[in-house]
Structures are given as C-alpha cells and as structure tokens.
Amino acid sequence: MKRLALLFALISLPSQAADWQARDVVRHYAVSGAVGPELYAAIGEAGPLIGQTRAIAHTNWDLKWSRKYVPEGSACVLKSAKPFLTIITTLPKPTAKLAAPAARFWQSFIDGIAAHEKVHAAGIRAMTEGIIAATAGLTVHNDPGCKLIRAEVLKLVTEANEDYKARSRVFDRAEMADGGNVHRLILGLVNGR
Predict the structure, then answer these.
(1) Burial, 14: exposed, middle or buried (Cβ in 10 Å; 0-12, 13-18, 19+)?
(2) How many Cβ atoms sit within 10 Å of the Cβ of residue 175?
(3) 139-140 and 49-50 strand pairing
(4) What pLDDT score does 77 carry?
(5) What's the mean pLDDT in 164-176?
(6) For residue 17, is pLDDT > 60?
(7) Which residues contact 174 (CB under 8 A, 6 or more apart)?
(8) Other C-beta atoms lying within 10 Å of the C-beta of residue 97
(9) Statement: the pTM of the whole predicted model exceeds 0.90
C-alpha cells in the first residue's frame, strides 16, 4: 500500500499522462413525483443497484489499455501504457418539470449529488494516472518473451483498483453518515429546505 501511495504521488510522467483524456458519459434514470418525499421514494425504487442496495447515483468506469511491451536483451520493458477510459455517471432525473419550490429543492439536491459523483470520477482519473506512473517504463529481467511483465502489470493495476475502492468507500461513509454531505442533501430534498 505504501509503495502504491508513493507511485500515486509520483504522477510525474507527463509525456505518458498528457497523451490521454477520459470520456465522460452521464446517464439518467427516471424518477416521478411532484415533491421531495415522492422524488426520494422514486429514487429508492429506481436507483442503480450496487450489490443488493439501490443508490441515489453511481459512477463507474470502463478502462482499456494500449500497451507496448519491448524485449531488450533478456529483459522486457513496458515502453508505453495509454489508457482509454470512459467514466459513466448515473444520476436521477424527474420525469416531469417540477413546480416551485420543489424545483429549487431538487436543483440543490442534484447539484450536490453530481458534485459528490465528480469526486469519484476524479479518483478514477487519479487511479488511471497512478497506473501509468507505476507501469510505464517497468522492466522485468529474465523475461525475453514479455510474459512475466504482464503478471507484474496486472498486480499493479489490481493494487491501484483496490486502493481506489478503499478510498471511495471511506469517502462514501463520511458523506452518507448522519450529518454528512449526502445525508444533508437528502434531508434538504425531503424536508424542503
């Protein structure tokens, strides 16, 4: 974990990291209702499933790579690692135009939820840059066929993924705890404040 944290801090391969951009996709699911409690109840019925639980919103990703492995003598070097990252955010959207003051409460709620999801998206981008920093230029000796290096790259990618998920869980617990940001957003929507 310390090694991975150091690698995240060393996101200093600008030539590698600058050569890519994430594609952001926002999807909506329909919620019906005219007031906050109805809208929140609809979220509970239609929100994205995460395990067995419905969520208000969710940010996920699809990450593919173009990697160039080059044999150098008896070693193998990962000369480049270019990601193709799509970040997919799913948010609720009312099926009908809301009247005041419900529209104002909804807008405050959805702006806050979208900001919460942007933190997850930033973490996914940081994870991807960390993978680049950890893998581009990696050399594995006694691997002229470039087979052992692939297992090492997979290990580093898995560590980065697990680190991101752990950080994401800590963030969500704080945000959703009593008095946390998401908790306050829900109360604001449901109680009309």
Answers:
(1) exposed
(2) 16
(3) unpaired
(4) 97
(5) 96
(6) no
(7) 180
(8) 6
(9) no
Q: How many CB atoms neighbour CB 135 within 10 A?
A: 24
Token representation of residue 19: 């050569």
Distances, alpha carbon 47 to alpha carbons 11, 53, 99, 146, 158, in Å: 35, 9, 22, 44, 28
Strand 75-94 relative to strand 23-31, pairing? parallel
**Which residue pairs, CB below 8 angstroms and at least 24 apart, start in 21-25?**
22/85, 22/86, 22/87, 22/121, 22/124, 22/125, 22/128, 23/85, 23/86, 23/87, 24/86, 24/87, 24/89, 24/121, 25/86, 25/87, 25/88, 25/89
Q: Which residues contact 74 (CB under 8 A, 6 or more apart)?
A: 141, 142, 143, 144
Is the predicted pLDDT of residue 3 greater than 80, yes or no? no
Please give the mean pLDDT across all residues of the chain: 91
**Cis upstream peptide for 101 (omega within 30°):** yes
pLDDT given at position 82: 96
Q: Report strand pairing: 49-50 vs 58-72.
A: unpaired
pLDDT band at 18 (very low <50, low <70, confident <90, very high): low
Q: Does the pLDDT of residue 193 top 90, yes or no?
A: no
Token digits of residue 51: 């395990």
